[in-house]
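Box 3.1 A note on notation
Throughout this textbook, protein chains are presented in two layers. The first layer is the amino acid sequence; the second is a token string describing backbone geometry. Keep the layers aligned when reading.
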Amino acid sequence: MEALTKHQKRKERERKRYHTYLRLENTVFQWVLILLCVVGLLIPLRPKKSNVEKRDLEKFPEISVSGVLKGDFFTDISTWYADTFPFRERLLTANAAVERLYGLGREQIHGSVGTGDEIPTEYTETDSKKDSEKESKEASAQGDEGGDGTMHVVPEVAGTIYIAEDRAFELYYFALDSANQYIKMINHAAQLLAGKATVYDILAPTSIGIYLDQEIQDSMGCSDQSQAFDYILNNLDDSVQGVQVFDTLLKHNSEYLYFRTDHHWTADGAYYAYEQFCEKKGISPNSRDDYQIQEFDNFVGSFYSFGNQAAVLAENPDVITAYLPKGTNEMTYTGIDGIDMDWQVVADASDYDSGNKYSCFIGGDNPYSIIENPTLQDGSSCLVIKESYGNAFVPFLVDHYQMVHVVDYRYFGENIPWFVEENQVQDVIFLNNADAISESAVSYMDGLFQ
């Protein structure tokens, strides 16, 4: 009976310690919640922009009677509160690290895995979608008198991200309708510019097509970029100078042609495209050894942003190598705000935020940029119509033209045939990566030729 009493006393002491621990745990948890709520209410600490996700965060909603009555106002407040919570990015990074500790492997997929359209061996006509026609009209209206002249920022967002080892890829799916619209757009541009300028079309592969084994791509339903590019280039008008760079990049895929943490190619990848362009144009490219080189380390790009901030990418940042043009490194660009800025073709990005270092090339994505090479006085001029893949490519053109005009088709609002004639442009160079050949992108480009 005495032994049973001792056992009961020991169990009672354990029960009291357990309940004391629970009370302490609940108290700590409650104070942490209170502290987080207080921190969350500190307006000055709330971020307005995400450098990691490269976007502006939600703004506090405007108060309206209808919004309050419908409940939209309170929903918007909830969205604003979560999106602008103080130290949000650090908390997201910490969360990703915790998930990794819980067994997140070295292979990760962020997004939905799908399938692309079958790639025809011959041209297959498809009907343009009504939405695409509407987008094209809206895009062309921006350049019309009385139309919408507002510059709309078009973010570049990565799709489904596949992470293997310390490198990320964006899954590629061929879209037949988009490819056909792209073909029609390029051929239409060539017809309008006939007798005025030569049209070149450079199709840039993305890293998955160059680095990742095709069997692995097939297992995830990805399309073959080489076949997709062949389909497009083989159906361009004979007057269009198609520049095929896929095979060249594939031969050099042991080199650092694409960033591990970002969807862009490196300047070395762009250099091989430049060599192929020079061959098509019939001019001699500069050797990489002829350039002055700058390097910017600690670059962590878009794949980190859209890949759930995977720790393996943050732990393996990229290095940007940039080749400075010999003729000049000076340029001027017109920003989305309409203000002209004197800048550099290759700017010093040493102090840039780790996610923005790719903007060392031509000041990033701007509606219009112009580079005048004072070492040439032959009247040579080109126009590059591009998305962000073109940024690392443009510096190589500077030594071959007196004037290099650059437009980002997502923001530029002028009519291209008029611009070509007004500026006596001889070469019009389209440069698009595989993922940029989409309905919306084609609509923007096509609108410049209406």
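Residues 2-40 form the longest helix (39 residues). Residues 1-41 form one domain.
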